Amino acid sequence: MPTDRHAPLRRLLPWLLWLLLFYAVWGVLVDRAGGLALLAEHWGIALAMGLGSYVAGSTPMGGGTVGFPILVLLFDQPAELGRDFSFAVQSIGMVSASILILCRRQPLEWAMLGPAMLGSLIGTPLGILFVAPLVPALWIKLLFAVIWASFGVLHLLRTREFCSVHGPSAPMPRFDAAVGFGVGLGAGLCVASVTGVGIDMILYAALILLRRADLRIAIPTSVLIMAFTSVVGILFKSQVTGVQPGVYENWLAAAPIVAVGAPLGVFIVNRIGRQPTLYFVAVLCVAQFAWTLWREWALIGVPGLLAAIASVLVFNLAFEWMHRWGEGHAGNRRTEAALNTYSMPAAGAAHSSGPNAG
Predict the structure, then answer these.
(1) Which helix (H) or strand (E) holds 52?
(2) If I label 205, which of 23, 43, 131, 274 is the partner at 20 to 30 A Cα–Cα?
(3) Is 120 or 332 the better-scoring residue by pLDDT?
């Protein structure tokens, strides 16, 4: 039976049209904002987001994982600017990657993703209004550092195990809906609204630890929730609370990089593998933790250092509990499936040997 060699390219047509539209609009915006001189002034963030966009498309950690520490720690910009920039740049890079994922028809954990989007739609604006204004800039930096370091340690310890899981997990509709909504609401309210990132990593943790999801399904699912949350966050901030000065200029410089960089991450990771990519990003997460503590030493001192390390430990104890809970339920599901498989032929044999047999 002949195959249509052009079918894969046709599936990518919506993504290609999105890129065409984006670059046309971006070109007009750059021309109005100052042209090449503005881009040259912000070349550093554009260069950094080349790596950030790859991270966004190939791992459960948004492009803000790189953009936030580069702006805040290296360029000494306010933490609030780093948060708003994360929302802005991910609304291009991760949306672009999401469109590509949908065009390629990659499997997703919709049972958890849909409720998580609903929770984020409620939690992120509420967090921007009522939680983020209460968090001092130093705490934003430390919260970012602690959460990312915790995920770095988790992946340094368990990446090989995570990469060994293959195929879709058994459905648990009520559980998935409850966890997804809880993650979207809680992480949107307390994490994404404060740092501009993080909801993707928390949903990913729920998928791989509680549900034993395949990384090839969990990571694209995390990309979509971060893309959705970033759009919600930047639209709400731009229309209601306002965006930090400097975000727009940095966004103009970085946006054309991430528009293709995040989708390329989706492709490249299939060539070099998820395991080395996750190890590399895990090391970056731990390194930025050490970098943050060093930069803020004058303000935090020994008490702050001990509190930050203790927080990483608490997060990883929570991850361990989630892992054990998920392993126990996965074992129960495997046992139940094995018993069902065993009992079906047995029941058939009993039926065939009854008084009416033959």
Answers:
(1) helix 43-58
(2) 131
(3) 120
